Amino acid sequence: MITDQGPVNADQIVWGKRDDRLRSVQKAAWFGAFRSQRAEFSCEITEIEGLLPEALLNSTWFHNGPSGFERGNQRVNHFLDGDGYLCRIAFRDDGRVFFDSRFVQTAEFVQEEQADRFLFRSTFGTRKPQDNLLELYLKNPANVNAVAWGDRLLAMYEAGLPYQVNPHTLDTIGSQNVQGQLVSQSLPKSRWQTLQRFAQGQWATTAHPHGDPVRDRIILWHWAAQLKGLTIAIVEYGRQWQECTRSQFQMPGTMINPHDFALTPTYYVFVENRLTFNLLPFILGRQSPADCLQLQTNQPTRIHLVPRPDGPMAGQPVQIVETSPWFSIHQACAYDQPDGSVVVYSAGWPEAGLEQGFLSSWQGYAPDFDVIAPTYLWQTTIQPQQGTVNHQVVLENYCIEYPCCHPQYETQAVRYLYMTYSNRVGESSPPVGYLKVDLHTQKSQIWMEDGLSFTDEPVFVPAGGDEEDGWLVGMVYDHAKERSSLVILNAKDLAAGPVCRLWLNHRLVPGLHGSWVPNYYGPR
To answer: Cβ distance 490 to 503 under 8 Å?
Structure first.
């Protein structure tokens, strides 16, 4: 499917429900996908359709997401509170493929597994059975991302320390502090100890690092919230996890960390969504942190340009520019232009979607796409010298998520972006396909599954130096078959559909984020 699209103002866009005849069936299938998968697997994948591309041989794909939603007779309030479940597909050099999965053995998981009940408050509303007054410690489910770099695999969460996992066995090793060191995860022994940690602004590592392919580094960032505002520390690591640079800046007036960031050779780019945090209901134990967030729809969105410590603007102050209100979710990539401007591509909600409140249909157990705010691909061009911003939707009619580029082109000017495809505006659906856009011609390609199959985040696997030269890899849950499969699409011809599909004998819960590495971590 090929279409021509041009930039459009967000206030010209509307959205709504899918045809009633399809909506109820698809909604039942989508909600049915969010059932616990508590089994852990180690098996060879033998049902393979098509030919496995040579570029995937001797490599490994990792993925993470929530998968355990019940303890005893209680279910989590929101699927994002579920226990982290790591998946690994390893492609051996002889063409055999192996699947393994394990729950991340966080300190909280181990205690709750033994007790068979929830023992901790969670970010999205899951409560302790007892009184939650002054119970400020939040469970770290390590369920958002699986990042492989150097000799480490990290299971990451938004509001806690990442867990190191053995990439060969998927055994949990321990948590990693903001200095990159392995530490024992000590849970607070009392509410008073939790209050002390909270008042001091305990550090957490977000789940969205980015890579700099030119300098061969991974960039992690950490945050600590206090009443005066947010402190963000950014650390660049080399391939052996040696610290290359460390910098820190303040984001005053907010206690809420950005979800993601982008980087160029010159800047780290952070988008500050204008949120307030109603602290009292959280302290009293009446509301979860997510429920205490309120969007300031009358306030502009802020973009922070933070000079990299070894970039051309090193030593210069952080520059803040403002746009009309919108909500930034994920950053695909960013780059510098010769005139000094910065271009950022992001997924996010338009101003009109913010009227439904923070998280809109993401409230409740699983997202209801009948009322979800549309997620669009945005292009933001910042002129630091003038302090001006041009902010527009790239694809007029499509709701998307998880945009990415060829990983060797991150921090450089890109032509192609890849993402999940949910629906045309005016309809409603979960992610049901993948989309590629040519930013030079504004043409897009779409591959869609049937309406009862749902797609996870795509990962780009390079197969050469050209920006289109590679394979798009993603997990698909087929509700009719009650099975999941990994699809592999040619990045040059996405609309042609999978060149290879690897079927699992079981289903997986729709996941969140993952990574691919040109190293083999499976059985010999």
So the answer is: no
